[in-house]
Every structure is written in C-alpha cells, then in structure tokens.
Amino acid sequence: MVNNAERTQTPEPDRPGDLLNLIRTGRARTRGELGEVTGLARSTVAQRIDALIEAGLVVEVGGAPSTGGRPPSLLGFNAEAGVILAADLGATHSRIAVSNLLAESLVETTAEIDINKGPDAVIGWLLDTFDRLLDEIGRPPSEVRGIGIGVPGPVDFARGMAVNPPIMAGWHMHPIKDAFAQRYDAPVLVDNDVNIMALGEYWVMEPKVDDFVFVKVGTGIGSGLILGGVLHRGANGAAGDIGHVRATSEDVVCRCGNNGCLEALAGGAALAGRLRESGLDAMGGRDVVRLVERGDEDATRAVRQAGRLIGQVLASMVNLLNPSLIMIGGDLARAEQQLLAGIREVVYQRSTTLSTTDLTIAVSPLRDRAGVIGAAAMAIDHILTPRAIDEALAGIA
Amino acid sequence: MVNNAERTQTPEPDRPGDLLNLIRTGRARTRGELGEVTGLARSTVAQRIDALIEAGLVVEVGGAPSTGGRPPSLLGFNAEAGVILAADLGATHSRIAVSNLLAESLVETTAEIDINKGPDAVIGWLLDTFDRLLDEIGRPPSEVRGIGIGVPGPVDFARGMAVNPPIMAGWHMHPIKDAFAQRYDAPVLVDNDVNIMALGEYWVMEPKVDDFVFVKVGTGIGSGLILGGVLHRGANGAAGDIGHVRATSEDVVCRCGNNGCLEALAGGAALAGRLRESGLDAMGGRDVVRLVERGDEDATRAVRQAGRLIGQVLASMVNLLNPSLIMIGGDLARAEQQLLAGIREVVYQRSTTLSTTDLTIAVSPLRDRAGVIGAAAMAIDHILTPRAIDEALAGIA
After folding, report:
1. Element spanning B382, H or E
2. CATH class of B4-77
3. What is the CATH number of domain B206-366?
4. Which of B10, B358, B384 sits opposite A236 (nearest CB)?
5. What interface predicted TM-score (ipTM) does this complex get?
6. Do A5 and B359 touch (CB under 8 A)?
7. Per-residue pLDDT tens over the stretch B215-244
8. N or C: which end of chain B has fewer CB within 10 A?
C-alpha cells in the first residue's frame, strides 16, 4: 500500500545527491553543517563530498568563520561543471540557449523559424544552432549534461513526442529525442511550451509559491500547473490544456474540431481575426497588442472582453485547484492593463470566497525568456536528482 | 532554490519510520531485506527494528524460508498497536468508526444527526459516541493514536476549521479540533467530506491510480483530487470545489449567492426541487434515485441531464488535470446508469483526445463507507509519517 504519508514526507538526506542539493540550495555550506542537517557521521560526509568534488560538482570556495581551530572550508555548487542545451520552439519564433547548471544562459539567441517546416528541417537547424552556440563560447559537445526542449503543442512527456499537435505539421509522434541523443551523450527532455514557461518562472521565483498556475495567452491559450511545488503533467502529459475548455455555447468552431473553445474566442489568433473583419491590420496577437498600445478602441474592447472570457475559465480553475498565484504570460500579456482587468473582474466575482482569500493574479516577470530558462531548468532538475547523481558517481567510481 | 528535483525524488529510507513503511507496505519483510533495500548496516537495521518492536509497531510474525543457517524472522506491521477514531459527518447522516492502524473498522455505526444542531451539540454527541464505541470493543481512550473527522463543508485544513460552510449553521471558524484534543492525547485532523472520500478510495485502491479525481454527487457537488499520489488541498484547503463552477448562463441562483452554479442545477437538492415542481414526491437525492429505480421518466430524464451538466464541468477538469480515473460517488451515483451515461457522453465529446486516451469513469466501490475509511486513513497517514514515528520513538528513548 503506497500512501500519502510516504509521498509527502520530507526526506532526511543521506546520499551524495542529497548532500549536493543541500549545497546547491544554500541550506548547508560546510561539511560540519552537512553533518548537522543530515545527522551523518563526519567521516561519511567527508567521503561523499570528496566524490562530489572529484566529479566536479562541488568546489571549495574559501574559508568560513571558524568556531575555533582551523576554519572550515565553504562548499559551493559548481554551476560550471557542464552545460545545458535549451530551446523554446514557438510556432514561428524560437529562443535557444546554452546555460550553466543554474539555468543561467551563457549564450542565447532568437530566430524566426516556422515550426511547420517539419521535424527534420527544424531539428536539423536546432542541432546546427546548438553546435554554433557551443562553439561561440568554446565549450565542447562532451560537456553537455542535459538537453531541454519546449514545443508549441501537446506532448506525451514520458515518450517525448508531440501528439496530434494542431499547429506542428508533420510532428505527430515524431521521436524528437533521438536526433539529440545521437549527437550528445546526455538525457533529452521534451515538453510543451507552457509547461517549460511555468518551470522557468518557478525556477527564478523567490520565495517559491507552491500552488501556482502559469497561463499563456498567445496565438493559442494554455496553462502549466505547479501543484505542491511539482509540475503536474497528468496521466498523458496533457494537463493544463485550458484552451479547449468550452467558454461559450455560441457556434464558434475551434481548430481542434470542437465548438466554443476558449482559444477560439480569446486567443491572439481569434482576436486578430475579428479585428481584421473590422478592417484593422492585425495578423496575430502582437498586432493586437500594438493596436491596444495605440489606443484603438475596438482592440482595447476586444482584449478586455478576452480577459473576461479567460477569467471565466480561470474562475473554475481557481475553484478546482485553489492556487495562490496565477501568472499571465504570452504575447497578449503585454496588453496587461486591459487583459488583467478583465481576468480579475470575473475571477474575483465567480470564484468562491475561500479560494480567492490569498490569490494573486500577476504578469509573468520573465516574459519571453521564461520558456528557455524553464527548458534548461527541466533538464537540470532531471540530471541533478539525488538518484541521478548517485548513479553518475557510481559510474565514476 | 527549492526545485522539482528535490521534491520529486524517491527518498532512500534511512530512519526507523522509513523502515516501518517498508514493512507496512510489504516491500521488505525481514531484517535482511531491509538491509538490502536501504543499504543500511546490519547492526543499524537491528537497532532500529528493536526500537519499533519496543514501541509495539512491529511484531515478529514467524520464520521466513532460510537461505542457510537460522531462519530469519518475518517482520509484520502491528496494525493493532493503537486505535483510530474516525467520523464522516454528513448533513443529516453520519458514520462513525473505531479502526485499527490499517483503517479497518473494529466497530462502526451510523446515525441520523442534523449538522445544523451546531458544533457544541454535534461534537458532544460525537465524543459520547466515540467513548461508547471504544467501550464496546474494550479499548481504553489511552490507546487512541489519531482522530480523523470529515464535515460537509469547506475546511481550512491547516487550522481544522469550517469556513463559511453553506449548510453547517454555527460552525464557521469553530475550533473543531479542541474538544477532541482535550479528551484524547492524539492528533486531530479535520477535512471536508469529499476529500476524505477520495482518501478512502485511494487507500483501498490496488493498484493505485496516482492521478485520480473523486466526484461526490449528493445534495451538493464536490470533488477530491489525488494528484501524483497526494491529496491536493490547495492554498486554503478549498481545492476540488466544482459545485460552484458556472455551468449555465441561465438565471439560476445558488445557495452560495452566485448564479448558474453546477450544484444549483445538477445537485440532489436541485433535482428533487425540480421534480417536486412536477408534482413528484422527492425531498432529496435519495428520493430522486428511488424514482429512477421505479422507472419514473421525469426523474430518469433529470438525472441523465444532470449527468451531462456534470460532464461539462468534468470535461474542463479533464483538460486541466488529465486524470486517468474519475470516480463518481454520493447518493446520485446510485442511479449510475443514467448519471454515468450523461457524464461519459459529454466528457468524451468535450475533452481533448490526448487527455481521454487512458481515462476511466467509474462508480465508487466503497460507496457509503469511503468517508469513514478515508477519515481513518488521513489520521494514519499523519501519525505514521517517518518524521512522526521518529519523534514518537525519540520520546520513548
């Protein structure tokens, strides 16, 4: 019987990987502190730290104030012990980075590339870009420790494949990981764009808000759920898909084939389409924002109303999940005054009193960079789990 | 920086409480197996097991097949090392039990008591009932290890108080725990009725389905969310409240003060009300089920339509959470053919393809007993966390 007690326990660290996490998060800075926090014998701590130092993951960074005798040396996480390849692939716009083990970009670039060129063309281009960026900063491919990739469509996370993506022609069930796994000796993680944005925002958030929902309002609409401090992906990696929740009983056909979906009413593409019908020049969400910034009344009204519709769906989500933070990102979030006003208006009216007691609704601070930071964070989280570290150290020994 | 890696790690057990969990869940049955699974030294395992045996939580239950030499003794979790008091308080109907440490009832009773009599009357009655049940099975109050209580309204779990409950007159912010904490030397946990039902179903489920939603369709409508194997309560303990999600734009006022809530349309009270308007004799959900069982067409149609409305809200929830199991309980679930047909019809139509790939929608197997088992399970999970066990053993030593 597996039960909650086991799953919710706070583990008392007792492995090299656990010690690494204590150092990485600043909860213990010396061998002595590690001994106190873990209750491990001095000799055990010393032995394990030696292994982490040998593996290059921990470095001695100077002396700490002594409590008598020789000053203990301060231990630091060596964020430069390898590099991470990170990509946030959008429909037409991508951001690529090589980062250190704290998800800090060492080099970063953006590019316009149409995801509909298909997996062979896009992945080939991405491999070339990674190689070029590594070359720019003088780090060899052998230093790559992990690869994180976000794509603009539903992903079966366990298999790392897009499943019936509405805007990624040719990507359905394509084994994205393979090409990268062949080129680099490192794990490859693939997830959808909104999940990596949520991970990116959560990575930099301080202090952490453990029940947190990230909502992307771009061409389409989606969300990433951090629940109890963990990204909730669901049984098939499909969690967070609020774009195809029914938001009206009106007859508005969505690209997914269903009727009245939120995205078909309040997504950037839908808004642009409606403004074009009114004779305005708007090809996508960014044009809508530009019109709002210029003070266009139709565009302003449209974004405010989109906010209300999104607010309706988020009100249900607040009742269901009771998060303490909803963060709005994506192109439309740039029209934040209008969009957030509409969202707040409906959420605070429609959600239950208890569930909105401590609720904050805010705009994404990382904006366009959330995805690429999250892609790196996803890879780092994977390679630095205590278990992964232990296995890596066992390989060295 | 606290991150996912730390939170999602599977801890390698290294404390008495961890050893207890290995024994309790059958993952290790002998001192030798415990050593293998944990990597702990033989002497360390022996010492910790001695402490658990002294505390009465572990017993030697006989010999295991030997691999040579003296046969190792099999270790068992002693489910009789204390008792749990469990109560599932409903609006008018309650179920009370004294159980062992596996949430198996040693004695169990049901009673009709109106929750609106208020906290003093109901809690006084519950204390008397617990005493009487303990007396019946000859266990003294000193053997009570934990107390779990479910109530029919929103609960701030951390504080153990009902918050603005719509049907519990006088209970708002009443310190429910206090009276029990004064009488028994054991922790008291209070949660809403639907969360304890979800916990009860999850406790007996084998194999466990880790992304699982329990939906109660009774007088009102609510849900309990097991996500990643953990009950998700949200920032204020308000998670799972689907009864007050907007399900229609029609002008139907809900008892919560809002308009068009699911509960005001598809809950047992709402259905009974509408059937009374048609001249039928229905005071609540159970009467509606009785009418359906007798083949009444109006009642059958009403339940089917209620299923569709619930299905609409669940379709959004499936898109959002991507669970692999939705379990329907509560009085209306007795009309399962009609209710589930309506629910399935809409969920499979309205949810995205990926999110319904592995989705099962089924009726609660525990039925009326889910709550009381879950109330016991909640208390057991709390008192048998490794940390709680360690603290208890430290108290003994």
Report:
1. helix B370-383
2. mainly alpha
3. 3.30.420.40
4. B358
5. 0.85
6. no
7. 999 988 999 999 999 999 999 888 999 999
8. C
